Amino acid sequence: MSQPPIGPYFLSPAACHDYDPRAPRVAQRVALLMTEQLPTLVVEHIGSSSVPGCAGKGIVDLMVLYPSGQLEATKHVLETLGFQRQTTQDPLPEERPMRTGTFEYDGSIFRLHAHVIGADSSEVEELRTFRWRLCADPDLVAAYVARKRAIIASGITDEGEYATAKGSFVQDALSDEAR
Question: What mean pLDDT comes out for the span 77-105?
Answer without folding.
Answer: 94
